[in-house]
Amino acid sequence: MPSTRTQVGIVGAGPAGLMLGHHLHLAGIDSVIVENRSEDHVVERVRAGVLEQGTVDLMHETGVGERLRREGMRHEGIHLRFAGQRHRINMAGLTGGRAITIYGQNEVVKDLIAARRATGRPLYFDSADVTVHELDTTSPRLRFVHDHAQHEITCAFIAGCDGFHGVCRPSIPSSHVTAYEREYPFAWLGILANAPPASDELVYSLSERGFALFSMRSSTVTRLYLQCATDEDLDSWSDDRIWSELLARLRTDDGWEPHVGPIVQKGVTPMRSFVVEPMRYGRLFLAGDAAHIVPPTGAKGLNLAMADVTRLAKAIEVFFTAGRERELDDYSARGLKRTWRAQRFSWWMTSMLHKQEGDNPFDYRRQLAELEYLVSSTAAMTSLSENYVGTPFD
């Protein structure tokens, strides 16, 4: 098998892997990106859509934010809906102007693929039999099959950006990592609907029927979620049933409700919290979903991944320009500190807004009391806002 060399081998062409490759290119560092799925699959997956201020700043700073600037929808607040009323939290006003932007993950991926192609650096989709080897040496190897040809690439470093089900994390000896996991006893049934958004900002709802979330993807497309069972049968959810349940959970006493329109996509998303420690083994560094999963309630997954690869790219650049390894040695500890903060916030948002198995009327009244306190306390609203819009990447 012929072997070639690169400085960084990147497994995974989602937003983490693509942004890492882009960071490295801007620093003059060569990389190869390998993805086992098709480009269409990676681009068309409808995933996260809430970008923290740090992610928005990163897109602009690295020169891939032109379309984001035109099409992204800046939100300076969110609404919490409970007891039939909506309450707005002015996040920008509480955080010195920091906000979130609605811009789909698939749009981020499109922008990063275009940027990668413009560099001429290698990007392999539809790769089979992707494996990583000799991770505890100074010359780890990345192997894969592309267009029926076998490839072996010798790297200085390998970045595992291949998600929760990827090959990189399982390639670490189990004795060298500890996994922490929590599975939630509910899921989200999410839809995309051809309906103009009925609110300029997101609406999180606690109802006696369960959680619901109003979001959007554009001025003509609404994104909505409702809490459901983990083993939910999608075939039992007709469009009429979905809309009936969403309206019941989101409608307010003053008559606000989402606009109803044709449902063009629906699916069930399980809820999980997961962290692996450390985020490094030898010359393999984990980033994004390969290292951590958060429930989507706090909108942290994509943003954690962007923070990871920004930190990793800086550490690799220092290694190649100054020969210093301290930043590489600190990568995992710094990443885990941010990850656990995000886990705490995501768990808190999830537990505050969802019906739990075995809950009784006491638990619902307790949740209402927590929400009532939250929207009446500047300190509590500031805490939520600081966590939601995110702290600067470090």
Describe the secondary structure blueprint for this structure.
Elements (H helix, E strand, L loop, with lengths): L2 E3 L2 E4 L3 H12 L4 E4 L4 H6 L5 E2 L1 H9 L4 H6 L1 E3 L1 E6 L2 E6 H4 L5 E3 L2 H15 L3 E2 L3 E6 L7 E6 L2 E6 L2 E4 L17 E16 L9 E5 L2 E7 L5 E7 L10 H12 L12 E15 L2 E2 L2 E3 L5 E2 L7 H22 L3 H28 L7 H16 L1 H12 L5
Parallel strand pairs: 1-12, 2-3, 2-13, 3-9, 6-15, 13-20
Antiparallel strand pairs: 4-8, 5-8, 6-7, 10-11, 11-12, 14-17, 14-18, 15-16, 16-17, 18-21, 19-20
Number of domains: 2
Mean pLDDT: 96
Strand content: 25-35%
Major sheet: arrangement of strands? 7-6-15-16-17-14-18-21
Integer-rounded radius of gyration: 22 Å
User: What is the CATH homology-level superfamily of the largest domain?
Assistant: FAD/NAD(P)-binding domain
Tell me roughly what share of residues is in helical segments. 25-40%
Poorly predicted regions: none
- Under CATH at level 1, the class of the largest domain stands as Alpha Beta
Number-wise, the strands total: 21
Shape: globular
Question: Helical segment tally?
Answer: 11
Give the terminus-to-terminus CA distance: 40 Å
CATH architecture of the largest domain: 3-Layer(bba) Sandwich
Per the CATH scheme, the topology name of the largest domain is FAD/NAD(P)-binding domain
Structural class: alpha/beta
Note the main sheet: 8 strands, mixed
